[in-house]
């Protein structure tokens, strides 16, 4: 008998749905953290988790982060996330995606899905054949396309705000930035950094991703591992792969004075935000700076305009500035300041709206 995932016993989430379709091989979990500000929106992650408990832990953390991300970005959306358990390279099929779409449809609009690790806009088109509550679709189907474009743009805006707070100017020109993970988002971020005059050091576990970056930007330096990257002579560390990248060891050993990247849930455990501050490392909260993708797919719900979405994503610069200002005023790390700002909006606006039903 499979053990009940212990995280569910203490969760604050509104709803957690387990999805199983034996003919297609679908095993998925959808988590709705909050609909206080509106329907939950968050991507579907397709990943070979070691256990169901690991998948549950991930989806609970990710969906909670989406609530905070939407609130801090000023969107009238709640937080949700989904994970499909398995290796997308071998398990992903049209049949499985359409079966998953039927489960999303059964939630009647309380949850909107989009792309995440292991899923792409073309996958959203398959899901949309069974479901009305899908964003991040291909441009050919009227969607916003690849949300990593504005995710990277927003991270760059947040990094500019961190540079201003650290060095007095909102530019990475003349600085060295280490980017861990140059797949979807990291690749676009490298382009922004190179164009801004930064020196860039990269690493990735997938060689084709490195090859593509080097082909486009031959001036970029490649190192063999994340461990090597974080201890290199970098000014900024940009984790752009999976979560938990900021560990005690990273805080103790990196020469970087700014941490700002696209990965979700970067802090390995509570308390690291204080250790970062004590070492004089400015942390730009992940869900603050990586909200450009959410802004992009949310815009699709209004009839997508890239120019409008990019303009809204430009606001991440001022939002990050506001987080740093609140942190200084309250004498707390930026991660705590960001949480307080997001929680205030969920509380003040959410009490006017209640739980989103349809």
Automatic annotation (TrEMBL):
GO process annotations (BP): amino acid metabolic process
Superkingdom of this protein's organism: Bacteria
Domain Glutamate/phenylalanine/leucine/valine/L-tryptophan dehydrogenase C-terminal: 145-354
Residue numbers binding NAD(+): 181-186
Record-linked Gene3D superfamilies: Leucine Dehydrogenase, chain A, domain 1, NAD(P)-binding Rossmann-like Domain
Active-site residue numbers: 81
Keywords: NAD, Nucleotide-binding, Oxidoreductase
Gene Ontology MF annotations: nucleotide binding; oxidoreductase activity, acting on the CH-NH2 group of donors, NAD or NADP as acceptor
Name the UniProt record assigns to this protein: Glu/Leu/Phe/Val dehydrogenase
Species of the source: Nocardioides donggukensis
């Amino acid at each position: 008998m499979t053990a009940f995932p212990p995280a569910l016993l203490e969760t604050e989430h509104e709803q957690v749905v387990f999805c199983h379709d034996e003919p297609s091989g679908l095993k998925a979990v959808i988590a709705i953290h909050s609909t206080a500000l509106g329907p939950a929106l968050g991507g579907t992650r397709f990943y070979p988790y070691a256990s169901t408990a690991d998948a549950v832990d991930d989806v609970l953390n990710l969906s909670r982060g989406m609530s905070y991300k939407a609130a801090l970005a000023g969107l009238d959306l709640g937080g949700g996330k989904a994970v499909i358990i398995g290796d997308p390279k071998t398990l992903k099929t049209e049949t499985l995606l359409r079966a998953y779409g039927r489960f999303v449809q059964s939630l009647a609009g309380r949850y909107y899905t989009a792309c995440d690790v292991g899923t792409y806009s073309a996958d959203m088109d398959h899901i949309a054949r069974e479901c009305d509550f899908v964003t991040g679709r291909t441009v050919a189907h009227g969607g916003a396309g690849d949300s990593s474009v504005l995710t990277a743009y927003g991270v760059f805006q947040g990094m500019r705000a961190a540079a201003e707070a650290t060095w007095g100017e909102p530019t990475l020109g003349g600085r060295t930035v280490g980017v861990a993970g140059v797949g979807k988002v990291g690749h676009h971020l490298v382009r922004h950094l190179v164009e801004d005059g930064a020196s860039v050091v990269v690493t990735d576990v997938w060689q084709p991703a490195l090859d593509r970056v080097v082909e486009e930007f031959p001036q970029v330096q490649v190192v063999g591992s994340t461990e090597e990257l974080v201890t290199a002579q970098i000014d900024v560390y940009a984790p752009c792969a999976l979560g938990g990248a900021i560990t005690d060891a990273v805080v103790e050993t990196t020469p970087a004075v700014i941490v700002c990247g696209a990965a979700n849930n970067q802090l390995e455990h509570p308390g690291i935000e204080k250790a970062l501050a004590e070492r004089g490392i400015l942390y730009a909260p992940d869900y603050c700076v990586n909200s450009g993708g959410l802004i992009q797919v949310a815009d699709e719900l209004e009839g997508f305009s890239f120019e409008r979405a990019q303009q809204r994503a430009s606001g991440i610069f001022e939002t990050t500035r506001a987080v740093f200002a609140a942190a200084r005023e309250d004498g707390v790390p930026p991660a705590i300041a960001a949480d307080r700002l997001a929680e205030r909006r969920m509380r003040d606006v959410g009490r006017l709206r209640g739980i989103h039903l349809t």
